[in-house]
Known about the structure:
By secondary structure, this protein is mainly alpha-helical. It has a domain at 2-44. The protein contains 3 helices and no strands. The protein has helices at residues 2-15, 17-28, 38-44. Helix 1 packs across helix 2.
Amino acid sequence: MFLQELNPLCQELIKEPVAFVNGFIAGALRLNLTEDPLKSWLEKQGLTQLKTPQDPDNGNKPEYISID
């Protein structure tokens, strides 16, 4: 059961080992993808559009209502 959950993780690791390890390290260190030098390196790798948690989701956020 636990191994089935790790299967997609292992597939990505085997497909692109360098990118996977670099992404894992960047996530572990909580590096911001929109700041240099990481941003310029990603642009050199061909990534043109970055989606970060600060980006708006076009109104897909939950609405807050008050019930009286």
